[in-house]
Amino acid sequence: MAGEPQADCLFCKIVSGSIPATLVRETETTVAFRDINPQAPTHVLVIPRVHYPDAASLAAAEPAIAADLLREAGRIAGEEKIDDHGYRVVFNTGAGAGQTVFHAHAHLLGGRGLQWPPG
After folding, report:
1. Among 101, 99, 103, 71, which residue's Cα sits nearest to residue 2?
2. Is 37 within 8 Å of 28 (Cβ atoms)?
3. Looking at the whole model, is its pTM more than 0.85?
4. CB neighbours of residue 6 within 10 Å
5. Spatial strand order in the sheet of 106-110
6. CA within 20 to 30 Å of 101's CA: 8, 37, 57, 110, which one?
7. DSSP reduced 3-state for 74
8. What are the C-alpha distances in Å from 59 to residues 62, 92, 105?
9. What are the residues whose beta carbons fall under 8 Å from the beta carbon of 68, sequence distance 6 or more?
10. Cβ count within 10 A of residue 41
């Protein structure tokens, strides 16, 4: 059921604490941790505690939590001191866009030049 933890979801296991992660920040609705395969000097994943397969389904069902993800990404950018130089927040949706964990999440990237268009 949407919103409920999924037994086979890596990010649900990080939320529950059954899989360790390098935590950056936690709130009532979100968990943020360092990506294990960073694509920039700062690469933090911000995830909701509730399970939805992608950002669109999260936003449709729980818009306040989707907003929390963006708010937390901005706070973390400030804490990581990348807000003055610029940063990127990315939501990959679907395997064709590079999504490998089907639990909504934002990638916070910064600490180097980020060209456009990406990859």
Report:
1. 103
2. no
3. yes
4. 15
5. 23-26, 30-34, 42-48, 106-110, 87-90
6. 110
7. helix
8. 5, 14, 11
9. 27, 29, 30, 48
10. 11
Note whether 32 and 15 are within 8 A (CB): no
Q: Where are the alpha helices (DSSP H) in the chain?
A: 10-16, 55-61, 63-79
Q: Is 56 helix (H, G, I), strand (E, B) or coil?
A: helix
pLDDT score, position 3:
84
User: Model confidence over 11-57: pLDDT tens digits?
Assistant: 999 999 999 999 999 999 999 999 999 999 999 999 999 999 999 99
Q: How many CB atoms neighbour CB 66 within 10 A?
A: 22
